[in-house]
């Protein structure tokens, strides 16, 4: 049972204020958002920072919801339930982090898209956003293809990501979005 | 014309479209699971209104937050309003919410309809 203490210590040292592991639906998204919002409110966070964190959380959570249904993963299977969502907070920044399984054949395209996004400045991202919103149709999974662009714009920082090997068909896609607490 | 009146929830906005009383407003939070489905009745209402609009229409957006899937549908709503004569968009944003102000400006650059920006 030592892992309980170890998990607790990890969360303390990493300054994790909220973690959710399991099945992701619109209902769990709403619960997580309301918990995180209460936390932000009670800490008296600046309303502008609060809105940015909320914004990034929504896009990150809805990405997982859409992605896990898109993967057509069998309900109840280990893979469908293996997504994770975390928020950490220190003096300098909030970090919104997600991890979810992704088919290996999707990794190359996603890497390319995220690198492309990370190469753009503020104006470049704005143009990209306008270009996508003008031309996109809402996909069957309900996405507009704008989630990552919006996260990059709202955070004002590069999106950090990593793919960890899971099994022959899947990688675990880890994403970290930083939101500075000090206003520039 | 029937009034379209949708009460807001934690993930959907309040919508009131009332031709007779000249009230056209979308307010609150918009992050529904299925944004296309949620906005379908709004787009249908606007289409019908476009056939017999008032002489002038002030259409209010007073959003606290919307997700990216909603932003696409908001653009669809604005595009539907674009073709109606006497249309003006009143875009409200909280006075310290630069992102909402910028979002309104971006929408105004994407459609040919006058925007008036207001703080609350």
Describe what this molecule looks like in 3D.
- The complex is a heterodimer of chains A (about 180) and B (about 120).
- By secondary structure, chain A is of the alpha+beta class.
- Chain A has a single domain, classed as Heat Shock Protein 90, CATH 3.30.565.10.
- Chain A has six helices and five strands.
- Chain A starts with a helix and ends with a strand.
- The mean pLDDT of chain A is about 90.
- Chain B has about 120 residues and is an alpha/beta fold.
- Chain B has a single domain, classed as Transcription Regulator spoIIAA, CATH 3.30.750.
- Chain B is built from three helices and six strands.
- Chain B has a six-stranded mixed beta sheet with strand order 1-2-3-4-5-6, with helices on one face.
- In chain B, helix 3 links the parallel strand 5 and strand 6.
- The longest helix of chain B is centred in the middle third of the chain and has 17 residues.
- The mean pLDDT of chain B is about 95.
- At the A-B interface, helix 2, helix 3, helix 5 and helix 6 of A face helix 2 and helix 3 of B.
Q: What is the CATH third-level topology name of chain A?
A: Heat Shock Protein 90
- How are strands sequenced across the largest beta sheet of chain B? 1-2-3-4-5-6
Q: Decide which structural class fits the backbone of chain A.
A: alpha+beta
| CATH homology superfamily name of chain A | Histidine kinase-like ATPase, C-terminal domain
How many helices of chain B? The count is 3
Question: What is the first-to-last residue Cα distance of chain B?
Answer: 30 Å
CATH topology of chain B: Transcription Regulator spoIIAA
N→C terminal distance of chain A: 45 Å
Describe, in short, the structure shown.
By secondary structure, chain A is of the alpha+beta class. Chain A has helices spanning 2-13, 26-42, 47-70, 107-118, 122-135, 147-155, and strands at 16-22, 83-89, 93-103, 160-165, 170-180.
């Amino acid at each position: 049972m030592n892992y309980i203490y170890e998990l607790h210590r990890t969360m303390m040292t990493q300054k994790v204020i909220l973690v959710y592991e399991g099945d992701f639906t619109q209902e769990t998204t709403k619960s997580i958002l309301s918990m995180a919002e209460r936390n932000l409110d009670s800490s008296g966070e600046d309303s502008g920072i609060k809105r940015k964190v909320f914004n990034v959380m929504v896009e990150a959570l809805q990405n997982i919801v859409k992605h896990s249904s898109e993967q057509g993963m069998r309900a109840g299977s280990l893979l469908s339930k293996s997504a994770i969502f975390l928020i950490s907070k220190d003096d300098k920044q909030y970090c919104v982090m997600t991890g979810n399984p992704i088919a290996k054949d999707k990794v190359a395209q996603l890497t390319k898209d995220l690198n492309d996004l990370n190469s753009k400045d503020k104006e470049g991202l704005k143009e990209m956003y306008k270009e996508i919103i003008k031309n996109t149709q809402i996909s069957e999974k309900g996405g507009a293809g704008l989630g990552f662009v919006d996260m990059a714009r709202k955070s004002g920082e590069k999106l950090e990501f990593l793919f960890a090997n899971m099994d022959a068909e899947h990688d675990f896609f880890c994403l970290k979005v930083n939101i500075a607490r000090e206003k520039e | 014309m029937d009034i379209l009146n949708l009460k807001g929830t934690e993930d959907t906005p309040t919508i009131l479209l009332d031709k007779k009383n000249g009230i056209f407003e979308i307010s609150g939070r918009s992050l529904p699971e299925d944004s296309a489905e949620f906005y379908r009745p709004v787009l249908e209402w606007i289409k019908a209104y476009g056939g017999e609009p008032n002489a002038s229409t002030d259409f209010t957006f007073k959003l606290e937050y919307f997700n990216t899937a909603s932003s696409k549908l908001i653009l669809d709503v604005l595009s539907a309003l674009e073709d109606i004569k006497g249309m003006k968009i009143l875009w409200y944003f909280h006075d310290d919410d630069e992102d909402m102000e910028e979002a309104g400006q971006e929408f105004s650059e994407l459609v040919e309809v006058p925007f008036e920006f207001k703080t609350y």
